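Dear support,

I submitted the protein below through the web form. The confirmation email said the job was done, but the results page showed an empty box. After a refresh the structure appeared. I'm attaching both so you can tell me whether what I see now is the final result or a partial one.
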Amino acid sequence: MRDQLLVRRLLAWFARNARDLPWRRSRSPYAIWVSEIMLQQTQVKTVLPYWQRWMRALPDIGAVARASPQRLHKLWEGLGYYSRVRNLQKAARLIQENHCGRFPEEFDQVLALPGIGRYTAGAICSIAFNQPAPVLDGNVTRVLSRLFGVKGDPRKKAANAKLWRLAQRLALCASRVAAPGSCSQFSQSLIELGALICTPRHPRCGLCPVSNGCVARRQGRVEELPQTARRPQTTRRRFAAFVIRKRGRFLVRQRPAGVVNAHLWEFPNIELAPGNAGPQRAARDVLGIEPASIQPLGTFRHSITRYRITLEAFLIEGHGGPGSPTAIRGRWLNRRQLAPLPFASAHKRILRQLDKLLNRAP
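What the results page shows now:
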């Protein structure tokens, strides 16, 4: 299929089938930038309420630059990959300092901002500014690999370079279409096709507007492409967390910089080695106390990259003075004081379970 025909068919398909996403109702580079950062490693349905809440709370770049780190982390709470929000604020401050608060339009200037890679820069420049900048995320990689029969792992140099060349060629072709916003609409059409039709498993080829030009379909290789390497084997890990209550206050601590979930808050916890003697021993190891009794609070399962984590939470009535347990540096806060703190996702679930327990208490 000739490039021009492919582009026109995708533009026509997108005009009829595009999802009504709130960031598509605006050409604001700020709104599109926030959506693209949130969508990294995250599904659209998860991002929707976060994006809407963020835009209400921080309606422009200046508001992001001025916001406290705690407020930013609270707005991002539950989205994960928290370095994204820290880089977003670094970029906002650079835009304030170097671009008079206006989001830059030149690709190289966008690419130079913290947290923005080649795909994100291309998405912002094409979608917000209608420039013929190529986009190549996971969805577009899959679409182009199948359409053009690109062999090899797309994360390796040779295949990746070929895919970028194809994306650039099509973007330039879209720029020559005499239609308003053709570059913007075409970039979104590629992403949308991968999200809705050309899916990783069981693609809906019968509904694809360009299937008659698809090399993978013609060769019966749709399920084989793209040729991505196998994901690393998952590893199971088990943790115990302790909710220590004393006179209506709870002991919490903030995670340090440079670790997973940096700067977020959590209840004291420890990883349990295989064959660990149980929560009493773990409490002594992490808290420096020997609790008289431990009440199970719940078991919470979640994943971080390749790790499958089981977190067992326990409620302990506090021992000693307000500075104990002696092995933990943290803060004793009441429930109202905990509310504005951004918690790691699993510990946020512990907090909700704690609320249920407190509400049931006589």
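Response: this is the final, complete result; the empty box was a page-load delay. The CA atoms of residues 210 and 298 lie 50 Å apart.
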